[in-house]
Write the structure tokens for this entry.
Amino acid sequence: MLSGRLALVTGGGSGIGRAVCQVMAREGARVVAADLNEASAKETAALLASAEHVGVPLDVTSEESVAAVVRGVRDRYGAPADCVVNSAGINDDSFLVNMIAAQFMKVLDVNLKGTFLVTKLSTNAMIDAKIDGSVVNIASIVGKVSSIGTCNYSASKAGVEAFTRTAAKELGRKGIRCNAILPGFIDTPMVAAMPEKVMKLLVPLIVLGRPGRPEEVAELAAFLASDRASYMTGASVEVTGGYGI
Ligand code: NAP
């Protein structure tokens, strides 16, 4: 499905991002796993078991860091990535009444500004190289349905969805499609850090009765990145097991 394609996956060292790297490599793409945690990015590349895949350090909040990775990909492979998946993300929950501005902004910085920087610089590189491409942004169902303790995270993810639609509209004529995925509760280190009593309340609200697996999100990311989704752009697709319907 992705043979001949070159993928850049942010947050590629863990959870959904790592699963995206694995599914995209299985589908024939060469993969650059990029993560704040360089060791985990390299670990992902090692799991893919071929020298054509690499793990690199990346801080999505830093324009210099994003530019260095985009440049590094072009130098190494002779072309920019034509599949970009923005999976780097953080949460830092607390009730609205207790949330401090720095905590609010930190989450927006990684989730929203990071998605902007990586999308901007990587699609500029596609346009310069005159190649078509696809961007997949990992948003969240809690950007759409209400949630408690996540006003920073929910706002950032609603922003990612809106950003994706505008990017799709501006970049469509350049041959670049942009889509968002809205996962529900997926079994990753991010969700493992949630208090058990919260998970006990949440799981009964999931129609399929269980959290999702990272690869269940990754399969959709690979499809959206591929030509099989050639007429999809500006879409937000839910992978929630029925949570929030
Ligand atoms: P995860 O396992 O914590 O993976 C997130 C990865 O992003 C980590 O490797 C993290 O590195 C990296 N990261 C954090 N800040 C970064 C930065 N500034 N620059 C580059 N990389 C950075 O979480 P996940 O559950 O796979 O989440 C992946 C995406 O899915 C996130 O955008 C998340 O919001 C979204 N999502 C997850 C769920 C879920 O239920 N799991 C649901 C909806 C949406 P460190 O480990 O070093 O921090």
